[in-house]
Amino acid sequence: MSCDNKQDGYPVRAFGRPVKRYCQFLEITDCPELIARYVESHDREHAWKEIIDGIRQVGILEMELYILGNKVVMIVEAPLDFEWKTAMAQLAALPRQAEWESFVARMQGCDPAVPSDSKWQLMDRMFYLYD
Questions:
Q1: Is residue 4 in a domain?
Q2: Mean pLDDT of all residues in 76-105
Q3: Is 98 helix (H, G, I), strand (E, B) or coil?
Q4: pLDDT, the chain, mean
Q5: Closest Cα partner for 79 from 28, 20, 24?
Q6: Between 118 and 72, where is the model more confident?
Q7: Distance (Å, whole) CA 74 – CA 25
Q8: Between 8 and 41, whose confidence is greater?
Q9: Residue 64 — pLDDT band, cuts 50, 70, 90?
Q10: Which residue segment(s) compose the domain that 88 sits in?
Q11: For 66-85, what is each residue's pLDDT tens digit?
């Protein structure tokens, strides 16, 4: 059974080791054409290979984006020894990252010179199925 839509759920990758998760939030420009372009720029065919490679290079194991209207949630899974600020500084310095940030900024309604970790807001976990 394919789990590729919100009604059926989405598969979760197993890493065989404990990981930690970060959740972030961003409101993008509330314009249907720009939202469609933003979604397209992140699909399998249009996502920039260098950006995906860079995300992996800084130690991120998985990254997912979820969208509802103009609200986007990013879920990042990383090893337990992952340091967020260090990885974001490394990511910002990688080739094409500034170009990517400038490209998506038009759809995000953000300053093109602002790095990713300054646009996205880290969220606080407020509930989980307690042990």
A1: no
A2: 95
A3: helix
A4: 94
A5: 20
A6: 72
A7: 6
A8: 41
A9: very high
A10: 19-122
A11: 999 999 999 999 999 999 99
Token couple for 53:
């490679």
Number of other CB atoms surrounding residue 103 within 10 Å = 15
The number of domains in the chain is 1
For the segment 44-65, the average pLDDT, to the nearest whole number, is 97
Are 73 and 25 a contacting pair, CB within 8 Å?
A: yes
In a domain, 13, yes or no: no
Order of all β-strands in the sheet with 121-122: 62-68, 71-79, 19-27, 121-122
Burial (0-12, 13-18, 19+ Cβ within 10 Å), 126: exposed
Say how far apart CA 27 and CA 78 lie, in whole Å: 24
Contact 33, 70 (CB under 8 A): no
CATH number for the domain harbouring residue 66: 3.30.70.100
Q: Measure Cα distances from 6 to 37, 47, 73, 101, 127 in Å.
A: 20, 21, 14, 28, 21
